[in-house]
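Tutorial handout. Part one gives the primary structure; part two gives the three-dimensional structure as tokens.
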Amino acid sequence: MKYAASVYYSDLQNFIVGIVDPTKTRKFMPTAQPVNPKVFQNLNNAYRTGFEASFETAISTDYYFKSEMAYVYAKNKDLDESLPLTPPFNTRLILGTTKEKYWANVQYNITSSQNEIAPSFGETSTDGYQTVDIRFGFKPFKNANLGFAAINVFDKTFNNHLNFSFTNQANFGRVPITEPGRNLTAFFQYNF
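Part two.
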């Protein structure tokens, strides 16, 4: 069995953050949304804390189970809200096999909703989501790896909290960026 964990705390001074200023309007196209620009300011009191943990165990000589998780909590004490762009809690569960000539794994990704937001930044909450990825490959000769992957196998529609929402069509409003759907890929690696 292998395991790892880390915990951290960062006291942030003079942290630069963009804050929507309702007293100002955009210079160009002042009636288009968003009307109010962000003004960058230094925060005097902010911090980030969190943890990362993982463990891996052999189910048999050829099969393994691995789990990875990460959580971040951030606080802007000046405005009594979260710091912007704080990732939500996420977990990966991986079941795989490694043989001399081939390897394969199935990865289940779980991301929680993010409601710890920074309204002053113009940030909005995002829903949690779950996706499944499948990867497998062959080792045709020494130091070579030919692999295939299906990312987001079930073609789940979701929004990553770290991607901004934006206005991209007239009369459509502010919409979050949707992440890619099912993605099939192939790759070749050679280690020198």
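Part three, for discussion. Residues 2-190 form a domain with the Maltoporin; Chain A fold (CATH 2.40.170.20). The chain has one domain: 2-190.
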